[in-house]
Design brief:
- The chain is of the alpha+beta class.
- 48% of the residues lie in helices and 11% in strands.
- The chain is built from 28 helices and 14 strands.
- A 4-stranded mixed sheet has the order 2-1-4-5. A 4-stranded antiparallel sheet has the order 6-7-3-8. A 4-stranded mixed sheet has the order 11-12-13-14.
- 41% of the residues are buried.
Length: 714
């Protein structure tokens, strides 16, 4: 797929057409069946299941995955009505969350009903044992457009490779096949529909092979009998020991002989459904959450071993921090968390302190608050559980309301329940917002982000007074709230693109932006032979024209911008002397960059200028972005007319040490993005143009700060 971009863009249309023909060849069944066992072959990766056992994942060839994904997109909409209201694991956004919310609402409302029981169905090795004959029959019946491709992959045993061993895939669907969940659901659905048509149940919901049945105890017992009787015909064998029966108020009839197997599990306090708690006992849910928090903290400890703050922060934000708890935060009411969120936040703060200051001094309450703000508010985008608790559960309940209503309809329950009411009350009291009174806003996409924006805006509005911020702290914070000031934090470490900093440099940049005192030792400035005793934060180091000073940062940004233009296919020159002279006849400096034929066939000079908004004066009436705008105007006044007279266009590219960009700089980068996309269908580099430029600015600032070492923590 890399051939669709870069220098190969000249042939990308033909290549894409060829790929399309190959995909259609497979879907139409025109590939010889004898090749099926090779095309469907895959290396095996054994993954340990949370409850023990091994889950073999088959990662097939790119052609296998591509054709299957195209096929899934093709038939998905046509099968939606067939699965609707019963199977929530295929093509249903938020299906797992909806099941959990519906079950907890049901337990809240009718947990004291002694006549009900909840059955959690567990099949033994379901995906690997499902009957292939039934699967192929259901595919022909429900989605014939896929039948030739599925038969090609599954009608004969495929080769599976594990180390030096070659196995044959003779049963079930391959876990790792993009079509696997859909194929399994097709086999299961006739049994699910038979249960729906044969019994009067309060609730029936399936997430792939995980089934939940709620109804009259005797009726639920008959459902279990049906599953045990008919399931093996589909290759679905009940694992009785892992199948669970639960209700907050146990029905004595469930103990009668012959109603349920004697070996069926009977938890007393609650059950875990799809990884979330269903119970009326706060203790049960809290224990489950505590275990998840413990595992997350242990994972953060393991990541810390890599001893690379840049990678640690990226992983902490993306996959090893709060992201491990998002499902719990969205499916458990805030009271279930108890003190677990405090324990997580304490561990998170410790990791952030280590990343920023190597566990040294200076990471105080304001630094912790600022670090856990989102990017657009000047933070590091690492969220604390104590913040997310205010809106995650509420967002999930609202986003899955329609699915919950469909599940709850047989029960007749309409009341959203006390947990939802408490979540609404807490959010409203915390934010003072009437957002939830507008049904159109609630139905809008990305609801969780909307609620998060409302919450953090309220917190940010009071932060200046709560933390008694100094004028410098306010100026620093405001400067980092620009549209592209925090883009550098999104950069993936890639040395070939210059997106890597060593530990000292990265920590210095983080410390500077968070307002951590960096210096205590007064040293003479190398450029002025003067001691700046008050420069504990590094402001002079960032604005100094010393050996590793603003010129170094300027050149780093210039070279990055030049490389961005080159990779986007733009013809540019660097440090081009266009013969400009001042009023005294003296030569002016060459153009930092010359964009050839950029403005209606005219070459355009780009002059880069960097500045620092944090000076020792002017903090009281500070306006973010003013310094880059003023510098841009100053450069235009100095060079534009001279360039015009010489037949060149002129553009000022002004940036600050905190990543602020002038309007002309933003316009230039956006135009480069647009040009890159128009030339390259993939244009993967276009999305990261702002990130690369922002990272270059931060890297230059880091070099300036490191030149003043030692700091308080290095």
């Amino acid at each position: 797929m890399d051939c669709l971009g870069g220098a190969a863009v000249a042939i990308s249309d033909d290549l894409l057409a060829s790929i399309t023909r190959v995909v259609n060849l497979f879907l139409e069944g025109r590939c010889p069946l004898v090749l099926g066992e090779y095309i469907a072959s895959a290396p095996l990766t054994p993954l340990v299941k949370p409850g023990g056992g091994v889950r073999p994942i088959a990662v097939g060839t790119i052609w296998r995955r591509l054709v299957s994904k195209v096929g899934a997109c093709l038939v998905g909409p046509t099968l939606a009505s067939y699965f609707a209201g019963l199977q929530f694991g295929v093509g249903v956004s938020g299906g797992g969350e909806a099941i959990l919310h519906a079950l907890n609402r049901l337990v809240e409302a009718r947990g004291g009903d002694v006549g009900l029981s909840m059955l959690l169905v567990d099949f033994r090795n379901a995906f690997n044992l499902v009957d292939r004959t039934t699967m192929l029959q259901e595919v022909r019946r429900r989605c014939p457009t896929l039948s030739r491709w599925v038969e090609f992959c599954y009608s004969s045993p495929a080769r599976l490779y594990y180390g030096e061993h070659c196995l044959r895939s003779c049963q079930g669907v391959q876990q790792g096949d993009p079509l696997g969940p859909l194929l399994f659901a097709l086999v299961l659905q006739p049994l699910v529909c038979k249960i729906r048509d044969s019994f009067d149940l309060t609730l029936q919901a399936w997430y792939l092979d995980d089934g939940t049945i709620v109804g009259d105890t005797l009726e639920v017992g008959r459902v279990l009998d049906l599953i045990m009787a008919d399931g093996p015909g589909f290759g679905l064998h009940l694992n009785v020991a892992k199948t669970e029966l639960f209700w907050p108020t146990e029905d004595p009839r469930s103990r009668l002989p012959g109603i349920f197997p004697t070996s069926i599990a009977r938890p007393l306090s609650g059950v875990s459904v799809l990884g979330g708690p269903v119970s009326t006992s706060p203790v049960f849910g809290s224990e489950l959450v505590e275990r998840r928090v413990t595992r997350t903290v242990e994972l953060m400890d393991l990541v810390a071993r890599i001893e690379d703050p840049q990678c640690e922060l990226l992983l902490l934000r993306a996959c090893t921090g709060l992201s491990k708890l998002y499902f719990s935060l969205r499916t458990c009411s805030p009271d279930v968390f108890g003190s677990a969120h405090l324990r997580f936040d304490a561990a998170l703060r410790s990791r952030l302190e280590r990343i920023v200051t190597a566990s040294g001094p200076g990471f105080g309450e304001w630094q912790w608050r600022l670090a856990t703000f989102p990017f657009h508010l000047g933070g590091l985008g690492v969220y604390a559980a104590g913040d997310v608790l205010h809106y995650a559960f509420l967002a999930s309940r609202l986003q899955t309301a329609d699915l919950q209503d469909r599940l709850m309809r047989p029960s007749g329950i309409i009341d959203p329940g006390p947990s939802f009411a408490d979540a609404v009350r807490v959010f409203t009291e915390t934010t003072g917002s009437d957002f939830l009174s507008d049904s159109r806003e609630i139905a809008a996409p990305k609801l969780m982000k909307k609620l998060a924006d409302i919450y953090f805006a309220k917190v940010a509005a009071s932060s200046e007074s709560v933390f008694s911020l100094t004028p410098r702290q306010v100026a620093l914070w405001k400067s980092q709230q620009g549209a592209h000031s925090s883009d550098w934090l999104r950069a993936v470490p890639i040395s070939g693109l210059g997106q890597v900093m060593n530990r000292r440099t990265y920590r210095c940049v983080l410390g500077y932006r968070l307002g951590v005192p960096l210096f205590t030792v007064s040293r003479p400035c190398s450029a002025f032979s003067r001691v700046f005793a008050e420069d504990v934060f590094g402001d002079h180091a960032v604005s100094c024209a010393g050996t590793v000073g603003v010129k170094h940062r300027h050149n780093l940004v210039r070279d990055t911008l030049s490389d961005i233009c080159y990779r986007s296919g733009l013809s540019t020159g660097k440090e081009v002397d266009i013969g400009l002279v001042d009023e005294h006849g003296g030569s002016l400096r060459p153009a930092d960059l010359l964009l050839y034929s950029w403005d209606r066939g005219r070459d355009v000079c780009v002059d880069l200028t960097g500045s620092s908004p944090l000076t020792q004066t002017g903090m009281a009436d500070f306006v973010s972005g003013r310094v880059v705008a003023d510098d841009a105007q100053r450069k235009c006044a100095k060079y534009r007319d001279r360039c015009e007279a010489a037949g060149y266009g002129f553009l000022s590219f002004s940036f600050s040490s905190l990543g602020e960009l002038s309007s002309d700089a933003v316009a230039l980068l956006k135009r480069i993005q647009k040009f890159s996309v128009s030339q390259d269908a993939g244009a993967r580099n276009a999305a990261y143009i702002f990130t690369r430029l922002s990272f270059a600015v931060a890297k230059g600032v880091g070099a300036q700060l490191v030149s003043r070492l030692p700091t308080n923590f290095m």
